[in-house]
Design a protein that fits this description.
Helix content: 10-25%
Number of domains: 1
Structural class: alpha+beta
Low-confidence stretches: none
CATH topology: Fumarylacetoacetate hydrolase, domain 2
Number of strands: 14
Order of helices and strands: EHEEEEEHHEEEEHEEEE
Largest sheet: 7 strands, mixed
Mean pLDDT: 95
CATH architecture: Alpha-Beta Complex
Number of helices: 4
Radius of gyration: 16 Å
């Protein structure tokens, strides 16, 4: 199982980090060891002083696929979720400045929060789902999948050009604006279409 992540998929987030708008999806991989075990708190790693939360809509792949056409991409997933792509922003900035890969900033242990899964058919349109992240009860990220630069089916088709998708793979579809630093004792909760999908304590 692999975690396939998309960067820079919301225009407002690109602007807030002053990144260049990409001409095609930005793709990176997290190892499965990055998954935060259920019911476990998130511990800020000792190698970073600036870990950011990034809430993202998730898709679980249900069958093997390669070179998937966009019109068939919807048949490759039945479940939708919500999670967090934790990012060691200080480490990432340093690695990017040196032109180095930034897996250490994205793929460290516990860096991938995966909430509960919901049947795709519960949602009228996966391209128009509202979601948000609350930190200590305050809404810090709020967006809608309609604002994605590349929608879910487009991402599946694109990614499958480079990586064979396998049953159980998880696609992180990108984060909207509002990312920020986590601190010890923060309490994070993710909401998708009014449903609480995860709750995390930060240590």
């Amino acid at each position: 199982m692999k975690l396939i992540c998309i960067g820079r998929n919301y225009a407002a987030h690109i602007e807030e980090l002053q990144n260049e708008r990409p001409k095609e999806p930005v793709v990176f991989i997290k190892p499965d060891s990055a998954i935060l075990p259920k019911e476990q708190d998130f511990y800020i790693p000792e190698f970073s002083n600036n870990v950011h939360y990034e809430v993202e809509v998730l898709v679980k792949i249900k069958k093997v696929g390669k070179h998937i056409a966009k019109q068939f991409a919807h048949t490759y997933y039945d479940e939708i979720g919500l999670g967090i792509d934790f990012t060691a922003r200080d480490l990432q900035a340093d690695l990017k400045a040196k032109g180095l890969p930034w897996e250490k900033a994205k793929g460290f242990d516990g860096a991938a929060v995966i909430g509960k899964w919901m049947p795709k058919n519960m949602y009228e349109n996966v391209d128009r789902m509202g979601f948000s992240l609350l930190r200590n009860g305050e809404n810090v990220q709020k967006s809608n999948t309609s604002l994605m630069l590349w929608k879910i089916d487009e991402l599946i088709a694109y990614v499958s050009t480079y990586f064979m998708l396998k049953k159980g793979d998880i696609l992180f579809t990108g984060t909207p604006a509002g990312v920020g630093k986590v601190s010890p004792n923060d309490y994070l909760s993710g909401i998708l279409e009014g449903e609480t999908m995860f709750e995390i304590n930060v240590r």
